[in-house]
Task: structure prediction
Amino acid sequence: MNILFLTLILNIENKSVYETPLERLVHLVESDGRLTNNEPILGDWCEKRQRFLSRGPLQITRDCHTDANVSFPYEEVDSLENSLIVFRKYMKRYANKDRFMRLGIDREPTAEDMLRIWVGGPKGFLKKSTDSYWENSLRRFLMKLNVGQKVFCKSSNREATIVSINEEKITIKYETSGEITEVTQGQISQLLLGNNDQSDQTFLQG
Result:
């Protein structure tokens, strides 16, 4: 069975900056895929401290920036490229099998683990407070898809169109052959969680 993962790229010019679909998903969930223009993207207002606690396309905190041990100042996470550097270094430090083994978890971190670490800190994947973050992330992603949207299947080098979307599945139609393929939300979730054969993945960009 050919399982499809839809990588929705809202800003076509930024395709090359993402190394994985997960990075695009984090960008979409944290800032709705926005880029910093004349004003920084600020979030997580703290009434007690009277300031915003996160900023940039991936909504990075000062602590996260420090933990990532990057060479540029905190304010430069306003750049999508720098935000992604912080994300990758943070994941390399906290979402790796060696660290999981030290915590008594004998497996590789999944995409869900990574997202929950990103939102909840180094042990975020163990916190009940981050349980719903993964499902909410998928929901936000799926809400960005539209009927009639053109997508490109990189693995088969074919164009397709989204013909229907509902709560259970997405249906696409390949332009040349007219072949119709259904993608259930469960399949998208399984693929992101890393439970499928990598050779069976088809990435769509639109």
